[in-house]
Design brief:
The protein contains 7 helices and 17 strands. It has about 350 residues and is of the alpha+beta class. Among the domains are: about 30 residues, no CATH class; about 30 residues, no CATH class; about 150 residues, no CATH class. Strands 9, 10, 11, 12, 13, 14, 15, 16 and 17 form a 9-stranded antiparallel beta sheet that branches. β4 and β5 form a beta hairpin. The termini are far apart. It binds zinc ion (ZN) (3 copies). The site of one zinc ion has 6 residues, from loops.
């Protein structure tokens, strides 16, 4: 009686263990486990008596060397959900070289199924045969050979080109010469750079109609009619001597505040003085003294000065020295359409 109880307990324990293992592996508990235990009635059930393989599928699932399960086609003699390919079980079948990939194989620890994988091609082992540095006119050449497979490889780097500068010799004679190779450029071809063409204390204004057009007289200074009520960022070219575009004036309107700033295209423009004046209308402009001066780069509230009249005339005037041959300075071409739009803002 005691023995029978022990057997029943053993069967119950085994059944419980099988169920736990089945739950762990996510599979149905096979009926054969219980059958096997019943067949073994009268003996102590041992681990080896179960129908489970040594490698539980659930245990092998995390093994990085394991191949994905192939449940559709299991080996009939040793059923297992996933092959077991130990990471240290790979054997080289063919070594990789610098010309060809190699191959290695591994067999499943459970069923002996074999898989192969590629061993990546090796890098060539380069030895430099000849190296010719590039010069002003000749490309550089690198010829190298692989110590393993004798493959030869040739690479070119482009010629550097001359770097010319004016160089003075012992007698004070100036020549246009390459500072790398010493080549002297034909003097007729290389005209010496003309001296700077400085215009002194010239007037720079923001783009718009000239005062001459607006109120008569002889002053060409441009002014910029604008409506300062609409939020936004408004930019106007800066015109020097009524001939060159030398920078940009920017008016930022935000929350009823206005900020006026300007940027010059070249840091070689030397500004001596700057002024920012707003006029309420043409009469104020005509009077000349009725403008209100403000600072650049400072938020201002023009409605505090001009009330609800937001159509104003902005006068930006800079006095500056600049080189008219400065490459950053461009010829100014008038924009009649733009000026017509601006004139519409004048009451
Ligand atoms: Zn296998
Ligand atoms: Zn090689
Ligand atoms: Zn050179």
């Amino acid at each position: 009686m005691k023995f029978l109880l022990a057997c029943l307990l053993a069967v119950a324990l085994l059944f419980g263990a099988a169920r736990a293992a089945a739950e762990e592996s996510g599979a149905e508990a096979p009926v054969s486990v219980v059958d096997g235990a019943q067949d073994a009635e009268g003996t102590e059930p041992a681990a080896g008596d179960t129908a489970w393989p040594e490698n539980m599928p659930g245990e092998d699932a995390d093994d990085p060397g394991a191949e994905p399960a192939a449940p559709e086609d299991p080996e009939p003699d040793t059923p297992h959900e996933a092959h077991v390919f130990p990471e240290d079980g790979w054997t080289v079948r063919k070594e990789a070289t610098c010309l060809e990939a190699g191959e290695e194989f591994c067999v499943c620890a459970v069923c002996g199924e074999e898989i192969t994988r590629e061993i990546p091609k090796k890098d060539h082992v380069w030895k430099v045969l000849t190296l010719q540095e590039p010069t002003c006119t000749e490309p550089g050449v690198l010829v190298r050979v692989c110590a393993e497979c004798a493959l030869e490889d040739r690479q070119e780097t482009p010629a550097l080109g001359h770097i010319f500068d004016w160089v003075e010799d012992d007698r004070g004679h100036r020549e246009y010469q390459c500072v790398i190779c010493g080549l002297v450029e034909d003097m007729e071809e290389a005209e010496e750079a003309p001296p700077a063409n400085i215009l002194y204390n010239n007037t720079i204004t923001s783009f718009g109609p000239t005062t001459r057009e607006l109120i008569g007289g002889t002053v060409w200074n441009r002014v910029t009619p604008l409506d300062v009520s609409e939020a936004g960022v408004y930019t106007y070219p800066l015109i020097a001597s009524n001939r060159y575009t030398v920078g940009t004036a920017t008016v930022v309107v935000e929350d009823g505040w206005q900020t006026v700033s300007y940027q010059l295209n070249s840091d070689r423009i030397l500004v001596h003085s700057e002024s920012l004046v707003f006029y309420s209308d043409l009469d104020a402009l005509r009077a000349g003294t009725d403008g209100q001066a403000f600072d650049f780069d400072q938020p201002i509230r023009l409605t505090d000065t001009f009330g609800k009249d937001t159509r104003l005339i902005m006068g930006i005037t800079l006095k500056a020295d600049y080189d008219m041959d400065d490459p950053m300075i461009r010829w100014f071409s008038g924009d009649d359409e733009q000026i017509a739009l601006m004139n519409d803002l004048l009451d």
